[in-house]
From TrEMBL, chain A:
This is Dipeptide/oligopeptide/nickel ABC transporter permease/ATP-binding protein. Residues 299-550 form the ABC transporter domain. The chain crosses the membrane at residues 12-35, 76-102, 109-133, 139-156, 243-266. Residues 553-593 are annotated as: Disordered. It is a multi-pass membrane protein; Peripheral membrane protein. GO terms for biological process: transmembrane transport. CDD domains: ABC_NikE_OppD_transporters, TM_PBP2. Coiled coil: none annotated.
Automatic annotation (TrEMBL), chain B:
Belongs to the ABC transporter superfamily. It holds the Pfam family oligo_HPY. It comes from Labedella populi. Gene3D superfamilies: P-loop containing nucleotide triphosphate hydrolases (3.40.50.300). Residues 6-247 form the ABC transporter domain. This is ABC transporter ATP-binding protein. The keyword Phosphoprotein does not apply. GO terms for molecular function: ATP binding; ATP hydrolysis activity. The keyword Ribosomal protein does not apply. CDD domains: ABC_NikE_OppD_transporters (cd03257). Keywords: ATP-binding, Nucleotide-binding, Transport.
Length: 593, 262
């Protein structure tokens, strides 16, 4: 966190904020001491002068140097701004937290009050408050500060109620932690980062509010002055001497920008740079359409390596040289635990990884298409028709606002160049094949009207709309109940039988994979540790595979013995079984660059 | 050793026409010092049973008794008794405050004992608990992000143990974990149960896992308990057709899946 923050500070925006912040701070602390005399020294002879070397912003009607006055005014302006922002934030946090932890009825009342206050423009509230506290600087500070409370109250109550719904707050409640203690110990620390961002940008708005109030004569009163008052005085002769108004204006804008940038800096997320640059093709190559012998593997990857950009900007290799081939019509299962690289391998084989990844290989071919190069338009079409993808969460892979039918037809209409009616007929066929009853009516429904298992079968049906040669199913049943799991697997198998497509099934469940697939590939830490026929699991040689089989309790496990435990991830280059580390889940990665 | 009894409990969410019955007149007894498995699929109401036992969700009917004391009302006696029922959550990532060192999270569990701990006692208790769940006590000052999912789950178990619970409720505690880690957590639970004579309600959708840890089992479906009894008896001779279907759906290592009638 701290190293990341110092890195952020070294960006151009960070340097700007630092310099600006230091300048504002110096002017606030030392301004009145250093320039106080110059700002008050009257020089009637030299009054209302324009810009000169001696007076860069000119002088006012009493001949006082305007630059010095702008610098001296920094203290009042900044302190008032910070004071008002402080009132808004502290008040908002109190109101917001109270609103979030109260019982439902009281919570609704407080929230309604916040809503009502929010509907008044802040200026109106500030005017109202300045009637109460009078038109003094402190009055203006209280007014602007209180006017900001509803804004922060709303923000905090929204943030806090999302934290209040998390399990760790529930756990604290079960343990008997009082609402006050829970708020201070759990809620406030967890809403702090977004709160800081908003505080910084709110400070810049507050600065402007003050300038506006003082400009209107409602804020700081003579003989005190802040930037708003200087602006007010300068504005009277803006046509004669623009610098008199622009000087304080510049100070307001620059300080405001510093506050806003500070907010932007807090919220900054590092952008991912594109890692992949696919080699372009010559025109002759683009025109050549490779012929695919039917017996050739559907996918063939040799020494596949995949890297991602890490937190500190380096490259981290997640898949270290995987060689994998899938024959036509074959059902291959990749088993592994989280971080084993099983999904990444399958996604890379299908050419579906985003630009934040770097895919390298000696060869990566999908039915004659070289996936290491940018696909031609013909190849893109073939890929769209011949690959089908099923993810763990069908709700996020289906568009919630389009009917299932429309999404099913898309492949056939766009890539298969079918007419709409032909595509619709095909969609009914596909949905019927995956055993969704009443297909014609179901196609007119939206994804949320389907149950989880049905959505997953609809995804399979979508794969059937093309001419699939490979169906990649990434943990397709992990989110589903066991009874529903069977229906989805049945649909998957029916799809495979009716099209002759190969299936690449990715799962953490070795029992499931062994029951569904022809061949099992066991992955760990980005490498294939063992490949074997699904019906020959008993012959597994690798200790990891054997551990994976033994550590899962099944309906025959001896209940009086502890479960066998897999040894910790082997450090690079060592065989599993020799490591003495106690952390069985430590992620195993290699830093490349 | 304590006994937890759900007596004809019902839970209804919402009002009027949108009301949804999550649990309907369910009876369940977790006998002292035993582990009771509760199996069911999503939406069956099994997690609601956990939430009502610890007071996160109010019951709409019936009562829950801890050693004969009703813990469902708002009386002081009920509130204190309820703290002796603790829960371990499904997702170890959201169950720990990301901004709190794990030692402080575990120390929070000491609140439930109602006793005052000074700093030295508190630290030694936290260290003992971390040691108990096989995590290096020297790491008490680290934040949750430094730990893997399985380690975090062991930390949340330590937090629950800090409360010196009479009954521990484990709600799907291994379903977010990798299989190798699942074994570690299940072994730990067995160990703790044998040493501390815990009474435990173990909730899971995974029949094989429930079978492994439970002495008795209840099967829940659509808010009702459809079958209950001694684990081996229920699984060997399931009386309810739903239990039979569940049993048939569990994939078995190395055996081709029977899908023809799915």
């Amino acid at each position: 966190m701290s190293t990341r923050f110092t890195r952020t500070l070294r960006t151009p925006a960070g340097i700007t904020v630092m310099i600006g912040g230091v300048v504002v701070l110096l002017a606030t602390v030392f301004g009145p001491v250093l320039f106080g005399e110059a700002a008050t020294a009257r020089d009637i002879a030299g009054r209302q002068q324009g810009v000169s070397l001696e007076h860069p912003f000119g002088t006012d009607e009493l001949g006082r140097d305007l630059l010095a006055r702008v610098i001296v005014a920094t203290r009042v302006s900044v302190l008032l701004t910070l004071g008002a922002t402080g009132i808004s934030v502290i008040g908002g946090v109190l109101v917001g937290i109270i609103a979030a932890v109260l019982p439902p009825v009281a919570r609704r009342l407080v929230n309604a009050l916040i809503d009502i206050l929010l509907s008044f423009p802040w200026l109106l509230l500030a005017l109202f408050f300045s009637v109460i506290w009078g038109t003094t600087a402190t009055g203006a500070m209280l007014a602007v500060g209180f006017a900001g409370i509803p804004v922060f109250g709303r923000l905090v109550s929204t943030l806090a109620s999302s934290v209040a719904g998390s399990d760790f707050v529930h756990a604290a409640r079960i343990l008997g932690s009082s609402p006050l203690r829970t708020s201070v110990r759990h809620v406030v620390p967890n809403i702090l980062p977004p709160l800081l961002v908003n505080t910084a940008s709110h400070a810049s708005v507050t600065l402007l509010s003050f300038a506006a109030l003082s400009f209107l004569g409602l804020g700081v009163q003579a003989p005190e002055y802040d930037w708003g008052r200087l602006l007010n005085e300068g504005a009277r002769r803006i046509y004669v001497d623009p610098m008199a108004a622009m000087g304080p204006g510049i100070a307001i804008v620059l300080t405001g920008v510093v506050f806003s940038l500070l907010g932007a800096l807090f919220s900054e997320k590092r952008s991912n740079r594109t890692l992949r640059a696919l080699p372009r093709r010559s025109r002759a190559e683009t025109r050549a359409i490779p012929t695919v012998p039917e017996a050739a593997p559907v996918v063939e990857a040799v020494d596949l390596r995949v890297s991602f950009r890490s937190e500190d900007g380096g490259l981290v290799e997640r898949v270290h040289g995987v060689t994998l081939s899938v024959a036509p019509g074959e059902i291959v299962g990749i088993v592994g635990e989280s971080g084993s690289g099983k999904s990444v391998t399958a996604m890379a084989a299908a050419g579906l990884l985003g630009p934040d990844s770097l895919v390298e290989s000696d060869s990566l071919v999908f039915r004659g298409i070289d996936m290491t190069r940018e696909p031609t338009s013909v190849e893109k079409r073939r890929l769209a028709l011949e690959q089908a993808m099923i993810f763990q969460d069908p709700l996020s892979s289906l568009n919630p606002s389009l009917t299932v039918g429309r999404q099913l037809r898309e492949v056939s209409e766009i890539h298969g160049r079918m007419s709409r009616s032909a595509a619709a007929a095909r969609a009914i066929e596909a949905l019927t094949l995956v055993r969704i009853p009443d297909a014609a009516r179901r196609l007119r429904q939206l994804p949320h009207e389907f149950s989880g298992g049905m959505r997953q079968r609809a995804m399979i049906a979508m794969g059937l709309m093309g001419t699939p040669r490979l169906i990649i199913a990434d943990e397709p049943t992990t989110a589903l109940d066991v009874t529903v799991q069977r229906q989805v697997l049945r649909a998957l198998r029916d799809a495979q039988r009716s099209t002759g497509a190969a299936i690449l099934l990715i799962s953490h469940d070795i029992a499931l994979v062994s029951g569904f697939c022809d061949r099992v590939v066991v992955m760990r830490g980005g490498r294939i540790v063992e490949e074997l026929a699904a019906d020959r699991l008993d012959d597994a040689r690798h200790p990891y595979t054997r551990g994976l089989i033994a550590c899962v309790p099944d309906m025959g496990t001896d209940r009086d013995k502890p479960l066998p435990v897999i040894d910790a991830e082997p450090p690079s280059g060592r065989e599993p079984g020799t490591s003495a580390s106690t952390d069985p889940t430590a992620e195993h990665t290699e830093v490349v660059a | 050793m304590s006994e937890l009894e759900f007596r004809r409990v019902s839970v209804t969410y919402g009002h009027g026409r949108t009301a949804h019955v999550a649990v309907e007149s369910a009876d369940l007894v977790v006998r002292p010092g035993t582990t009771h498995g509760l199996v069911g699929e999503s939406g069956s109401g099994k997690s609601t049973m956990a939430r009502i036992a610890v007071g996160l969700t109010p019951v709409s009917g019936g009562s829950i008794l801890l050693d004969g004391v009703d813990i469902t009302n708002r009386a002081r006696e009920a509130r204190l008794a309820r703290r002796r029922v603790q829960m371990v959550f499904q997702d170890p990532f959201s169950a720990l405050d990301p901004r709190m060192p794990i030692g402080a999270s575990i120390a929070e569990g000491l609140l439930a004992t109602g006793r005052y701990y000074n700093r030295i006692d508190r630290e030694s208790r936290v260290h003992a608990l971390l040691d108990r769940v096989h995590i290096d006590p020297a790491r008490a000052g680290e934040s949750p992000s430094a730990f893997s999912g399985g380690q975090r789950q062991r930390i949340t178990i330590a937090r629950a143990l800090a409360a010196e619970p009479a009954v521990l409720i484990a709600d799907e505690i291994t379903s977010a974990l990798d299989v190798s880690v699942q074994g570690v957590v299940l072994n730990l639970l067995r160990e703790l149960q044998q040493e501390l004579d815990l009474t435990m309600l173990f909730i899971s959708h995974n029949l094989a896992v429930v079978r492994y840890v439970s002495d008795e089992v209840s099967v829940m479906r659509a808010g009702r308990i459809v079958e209950h009894g001694e684990t081996s008896a229920v699984l060997a001779h399931p009386a309810d057709p739903y239990t039979r279907e569940l049993l048939r759906s569990v994939p078995v290592m190395g055996e081709p899946l029977e899908l023809e009638d799915a």
